[in-house]
Design goal:
Blueprint (H helix, E strand, L loop, with lengths): L3 H25 L11 H14 L7 H26 L6 H32 L9 H28 L8 H12 L6 H20 L8 H10 L30 H9 L5 H4 L2 H4 L6 H24 L15 H5 L2 H6 L5 H5 L6 H14 L6 H13 L30 E4 L1 H6 L1 H16 L4 E2 L10 H5 L3 H17 L4 E4 L2 H8 L10 E4 H10 L12 E4 L13 H8 L5 E3 L28 H10 L5 E4 L2 H13 L7 E4 H9 L1
Parallel strand pairs: 1-2, 1-3, 3-4, 5-6, 5-7, 7-8
Length: 655
Amino acid sequence: MLNSLDVLVLLFFAAVLIYGVARKWSMWKIGERENRSGDRSQRFALMFSSVFGHDRLLEEANPGLMHLFIFFGFFIPFLFVVFAQAFFFTLSPVAAGIISFVLDLIGTLALVGLGMAVYRRYVVKPDRLDERGSEDVLLLVWLIFIFLSGFMVEGFRLAVIAPHGSIFAPVGSVFGWILATLGVKFDAAAIRWMWRFHFYAVVALIGTLPYTKLLHLVTGILNNYYRSLEPKGVLSALDIENSESFGVAHVHQFTWKQLMDSDACIRCGRCQDNCPAFLTEKPLSPKKLVQDIRTCLYDKATTIKRLQAQGEDLTYGIPDDDKPLIGEYLTEDEIWSCTTCRACMEVCPMYVEQIDKVVDLRRNLVLMESSFPAEVQTVFKNMENNSNPWGIGWADRANWCKDLGVKTLAEDSEVEILLWVGCAGSFDDRYKKVATSFVKILQKAGVSFGILGTEEKCCGDSARKLGNEYLFQMLAMENVEIMNGYGVKKIVVMCPHGYNTLKKDYQQFGGHYEVLHHTEYLQQLLVEGRLNLKKAMPVKVTYHDSCYLGRYNEIYEQPRSILSNIPGINMVEMDRHHKRGFCCGAGGGRMWMEETLGKRINDERVAQALEKDPEIAVTACPFCMVMFEDGLKTHGREEDVKVYDIIEMVEKAIG
């Protein structure tokens, strides 16, 4: 039972905890409003799965198990003690013994986990754990003391009631034996005081959570609960007509959830270990970006809260602010280095949303400051004038298929599918060959299809990811109006970027369609028996996962299934594949930008492919194809290693 002092200590640290969490919450609430309250049942299910299942943490075995042991070693005994104090009950000797054994085992695993943490942080010293300050030492010592003191309490207890030890508490019995060997005097008062030291250490740790790195025990749960339930990669749509400013130039212009992200980040470094920009020596580290936003928040929150309470208009920032977010805390080079590949977001155990922040920062630079790389200006102008990034005349969009007998929807709208050719298939010389191959495959399979021809415009993906939301919305609404006018229901898209945009982003503007990527549709045709891959191809191939096909839409197995159905194919995986695949470097609008910082991302990816000594590198994306072919030239391997789209592989196998 707790005495009066125990209750006072408990209430004091409860107040400290509540005050700390409330203070953090008030800091996050200086951000813009964002509705994350929908579908509570799904949110709770996902939260419990992540928090108690450790799904993402366990994707890396050693740190995952380390955290699992420590987390449950603390949580389960704490839960049991709270339950025991709240409800008085008597257990049978067997039940008490079983519970004692479980707690003994869990405590032991927690100490193992803490040992793993010490070894990893101070012996192995992985580069991504670049913070090893006094707080880390204090927290590790604190946690070790809690578990050791817990075993000492058990040892004291057993020394009194079971001097010869207990099979239900083997580790506690060892502690009791050690204490007895040291000549420690056992009595009821000693047990109470040892328990009290242990209890106060636990209560103090919980009470000070908001003031230490262990804050993630609170923010991690909240961030998991408030994670986005939108389809992967969907960005917010700006209200172009009714907004005074666009994007983020000041920390309070992030949403409250984006600000909470910065406190949820546990600085584990998984994001930067998978970031192609960071791994090719660009100035961007997703971890550092989030932490720098957090630093800015902490520096300015008090001032912003005061000015907001006074009714000040902070649309254009804090008056006379000499430490701007972009310039003092973040650099433009960081912001423009991102390929939006989603590698960081797919591995983050706290579900921090880095890409949304980057795009919001770009939106401000583009729409408010007109500050962006010079080559991007040309791309924007080309999209505005000719509806494609290359700036080729819009009237030439359908020239690639003039001898293929392809009809436009204007000529015949009663078709099974709309083939969305995309800008690359219409204008890029290399990918026009892929588009031609796909048309021949569809014709051979007896598919009824049509194209929009000159009515098709750029999908707008690059414009949106580069921050030009105005241009994106203009292109999107024009495309949606045209497709809705023809009553389009089903679309097959040849580019993963266009696929992701038409499938998800266009829903924000009234475009609701069944959208398939060509790998999905080819697989469907094979299953239906409308295609037969009969010609043997005895070659060694490796497949590159497009980020917008894989991480954004989880299309991993369809392309591999198609390749495995081609007789003679010897398929080898690169070391980084599927969810951990490495970006080609063209996403996020980087396709149209010069790469002057660090090493070239596509060269790094091609080097990873060449390690497997393939004869063919297979892609399913026009951007990836360009980047791979350029990379092979850099490595001097363009003659002996070829790059084919999976469409071309299918055409060859059909014979």
